[in-house]
Specification:
With about 550 residues, the chain is an alpha+beta fold. The chain has a five-stranded mixed sheet with strand order 2-1-10-5-6. Strands 3, 4, 7, 8 and 9 form a five-stranded antiparallel sheet that branches. Strands 11, 12, 13, 16 and 17 form a five-stranded antiparallel sheet that branches. The structure holds the ligand Nc1nc2c(c(=O)[nH]1)N[C@H]1C(S)=C(S)[C@@H](COP(=O)(O)O)O[C@H]1N2 and molybdenum atom (MO). The ligand Nc1nc2c(c(=O)[nH]1)N[C@H]1C(S)=C(S)[C@@H](COP(=O)(O)O)O[C@H]1N2 binds next to loops.
């Protein structure tokens, strides 16, 4: 009689069938009670501790794949990261269980001792518990979080061993001798695995379904919420009206929105789920080299302790954006000039840098000299006339004109004035220290079906955007094939801090053509024409499109 013992493949399959429902259980409890969502915590933790080069390589690869499949980076990057996070966690479960079965197969003595599966569960539980505590995204007591994680992993470990037993001949009913008996067992094993698969799917589906239905209590981040609860008086949401610009050049239909609808504003940060900070207990300490250390709360901002708020139309862009990418958006920011707040804190003469920490472990620094030289640097608490959304940095983020997003922390939890600089999160991972926005221009549309007739000549409108941080745009030019550069018309921008929409009405000529665009910033400096990928200074190069008309 052939003797059957589960092997590595059975282990891998069991790992899969047990780890997926484990994710479902972590998810539903996270949504219901605010316990840690361990697979996300693992992903975020790895992204923070792995070497910068490796992380950037990972991000680049993801962007390349998404671009290959023609997916919008803005829309697809978070879902792709979520898939990666779940896949990674599942893969770990599969590998661990495969190894576990390998060991059990070799080592008969421990096969029947459930203590072994339990110890494996405890070990895994402790590791993941430490990781989740590092990330700190849970809103129930730490003890409950710890217990929950341990419990589920112990269950997971014991189940692995239990399944091994069920698959082994000793546990199979009537170990009848001979080939027939062997086949019997094989059929039983199959039936058992199918049942296990069914149970696994059921738990997963119920967990995922329940979890997404009951997303009422978002897990609040422990960070930044050490204060006593106050009643926050948030200002009434306002409808933002765009400045009147009589006679301004009309954008070509098909050009992106001049003012990005808030729900379409790109989002980039190191989190899968944004830190959810409780506005009532949030405090902002301003300490270090100051005469008068302060601790601010949200009402200090909402109720204008520092005077009238400032409103600015701002185009924010991510340094990882490709020339024609969609990680750039425009909305109206409302906040308090940072100068006013620092004046009250009174930096000592020795203070040189403002070190900023955020609720997700992100950090950056700003030279005091820069803050003193630019009134527009602000602490923003509203976007588009509403309190900041959780994913865009509630309750407070900083705005620094002319810098890429990586220099501008969201979810700010503390300020320290320091004599020495401390390079920011992405600076430490190889990105440019200054991160000044590059001048770039993009063709959004060549409206080949929108022919304009003027004086017997047919024109095709071509349109897009140009931007140069806070330096403004003085000129945009379009080149058709190898022809001369011709000046486009510029629409008056929403502010000196936003992109400029441009249009060029091109005298129509049938055939295949290449259109190229370039811009000049407010100081008359032409954009860098040489193509360079985003890392480390922000992408440069000219954008062109091929059109058949
Ligand atoms: N705390 C924190 N702030 C952050 C980040 C982050 O990961 N954590 N990402 C930065 C980057 S890289 C960009 S491009 C902008 C994006 O802001 P948005 O997501 O609101 O558009 O946030 C910046 N601020
Ligand atoms: Mo970014």
């Amino acid at each position: 009689m052939r003797k059957f013992q589960p092997n590595i493949l059975h282990g891998a399959l069991t790992g899969l069938l047990l780890t997926i429902p484990l994710i479902g259980l972590f998810f539903v409890a996270n949504q219901l009670a605010g316990t840690p969502y361990v697979p996300f915590d693992l992903f975020e933790w790895l992204a923070r501790i792995l070497p910068g080069d490796l992380v950037v390589f990972g991000i680049d690869t993801m962007v390349k794949i998404l671009t290959f499949f023609n997916l919008s980076i803005r829309e697809a990057s978070k879902p792709a990261e979520i898939l990666l996070a779940l896949g990674q966690f599942t893969a770990i479960g599969v590998v661990v269980c495969a190894i576990f079965y390998f060991v059990l197969r070799r080592w008969e003595k421990i096969r029947k001792n459930y203590f072994v599966g339990m110890i494996l569960g405890v070990l895994a539980g402790i590791i993941f518990l430490l990781i989740s505590f590092q990330i700190g995204k849970y809103s129930v007591a730490a003890e409950i979080s710890a217990l929950w994680i341990l419990l589920l992993f112990i269950l997971w470990g014991v189940c692995m061993q239990w399944v091994y037993q069920k698959l082994s001949p000793a546990e199979a009913p009537e170990a009848a001798a001979g080939e027939a008996g062997f086949e019997m067992q094989q059929i039983d094993r199959r039936r058992f695995l199918v049942m296990l698969g069914g149970a696994s799917a059921a738990i997963t589906v119920i967990g995922a379904g329940l979890g997404s239905l009951i997303d009422t209590e978002p897990a609040q981040t422990a960070a930044g919420g050490e204060g006593e609860a106050i009643d926050v008086n948030e200002p009434e949401p306002q409808t933002v009206t765009l400045p009147e610009r009589p006679g301004a050049v009309e954008p070509v239909a098909g050009t992106r929105d001049e003012y990005t609808p808030l729900e379409d504003h790109y989002r980039i940060d190191i989190n899968l789920s944004p830190p959810e900070i409780d506005g009532a207990t949030w405090r902002l300490p301003i300490q270090g080299l100051v005469n008068n250390p302060l601790t601010l709360d949200l009402n200090d901002f909402c109720q204008q302790r520092f005077g009238e708020p400032m409103h600015l139309f701002v185009t924010l862009a991510c340094i990882s954006n490709n020339i024609a990418g969609d990680l750039v958006s425009t909305t109206r920011w409302t906040g308090v000039p940072l100068q006013r707040i620092l004046d009250e804190a009174g930096p000592l003469i020795s203070a040189r840098h403002l070190l900023i920490e955020a609720g997700d472990g992100f950090y950056e620094s700003v030279p005091l000299e820069l803050i003193r030289s630019d009134e527009r640097i602000m602490l923003a608490y509203m976007w588009d006339g509403k309190p900041l959304q959780p994913e865009h940095g509630f309750p407070l983020r900083i705005y620094i004109p002319d810098r890429y997003g990586m220099k501008q922390p969201k979810w700010i939890t503390s300020f320290e004035l320091s004599a020495v600089d401390q390079p920011g999160y992405w600076v430490e991972r190889g990105w440019d220290r200054t991160a000044q926005m590059k001048a770039t221009s993009v063709i959004d549309v060549a409206a080949t079906d929108e022919v304009i007739e003027r004086g017997g000549q047919q024109y095709i409108p071509i349109g897009g955007i140009a931007r140069a941080g806070a330096r403004g745009i003085s000129k945009v030019e379009v080149q058709v094939d190898d022809g001369d550069w011709q000046e486009a018309q510029l629409r008056t921008p929403l502010s000196e801090l936003t992109w400029v929409l441009w249009r060029f009405d091109w005298p129509f000529e049938a055939g295949e053509h290449t259109f190229t665009v370039r811009c000049y910033d407010g100081e008359g400096e032409m954009q860098i024409a040489e193509s360079h990928p985003p890392r480390p200074f922000g992408a440069t190069g000219l954008h062109d499109v091929d059109v058949n008309v």
